[in-house]
Write a structure and sequence with these properties.
about 400 residues; alpha/beta; Protein-Tyrosine Phosphatase, Chain A; 3 domains; eight-stranded mixed sheet; six-stranded mixed sheet
Length: about 400
Amino acid sequence: MHILVLDTIHGGKAIGEAFAARGDRVDCVDVYRGKSSIDVKTAMAGNYDLVVAPVHLDPDHPLLKYAKAPVISHHEAVHQLLCENIPEPMIEITGAWGKTTTAHALASLMDGKGILHTSTGTYLFPEKKWISQLSITPGSVLAAARMAHEIHGWLIVEESLGITCLGTLGIITSDGDYCFAAGKKSALNAKVASAKNCKYLLLAENIHADYPGRVVHLEDVARTEGTECSLILGKKTSRFSNPLLSLPGYHTSLVLAAVAAMMLGIDPSPLSSFSAIPGRMSVSYDRGLLIVDNANSGTNLATTLEAARYARITSGKEAVTLVIGQEEGDGAVCEGFAFDQIRAAIDQIRPAHVVLVGTFPIPGTLEYTMLEPLISAYTTTLKEAYTRALHMTDPGSMVLAVKTWR
């Protein structure tokens, strides 16, 4: 087959190499930067048997709009490429937020050898040894699956904007939605549509999927009161408690991991000892100052408000230094942290100091007028912002709410 693979920087390169390794002729086009050897004009003149495109590409891009060959997504391409080399069990996790925490929580329950692939990195279990840092694009599933297959172990993978449906179980972690693909697609609809061929599917609350007989809805299985969760799945029952259940940022992820474990025939009760992940509401102290670290790819207004509330409760002090924004050039983050959301977080939290990370609004714009009077300091990186905030915070606590790839 002669295959055209679009978008080399979001996993397309790995997908193209995999097609070539099986004997196909492959052309890869860098549709965002234009740095590939084959450009759009050349590809438009080519004759292809198949076009592979990421779900986030503008559907009106000429290579899609005028495609003469069948078009499949990167997720569907990975499904084709892995074929029979599928780890057992394999669990795929997608969603607007909660993916990483759900994946780590479920991995903590798994027996034997396995591979965990999330935005925090790829890990070998049970050692929890960090192996590498790859994106969570569908193309990265190829390498993760290969590693799991080589050790005859399980695989848990976090994926952006959908799943491949290769595994035993698919999980969608939240009903959060936003527009992507030049504003022409719904992220939630794309994720639900991608899961239509899952063997089994677990959905967070308020997500609807018309896939009879294969779907478990979280609200039908789990009940939580305070820090205790009770689960009933068919004839199976279980219970666990954890202080993190009182945090919205952890509640759904822990419960999803528990239900997923029950669906896989695993006891979820050890989740009682699961602790916070760095960058996901983890608490630490530096020079006696309490720091709530919630800087990750899923950081948004809601999680920022929760982090500030958690910081005040834990420290017992009202004063908070808020480190907020999005690191410049962090292309790994699909959904940005808009200025109006940053302003809303500042208005509702009322921090003592604000350190803005990333692009500063252009002077003269509404965004500049809206934010400039509220900013205590400005930096381009989270690392620099942390140092600045550490020196200006006394008394009180520090909240890291920067949208970044961690």
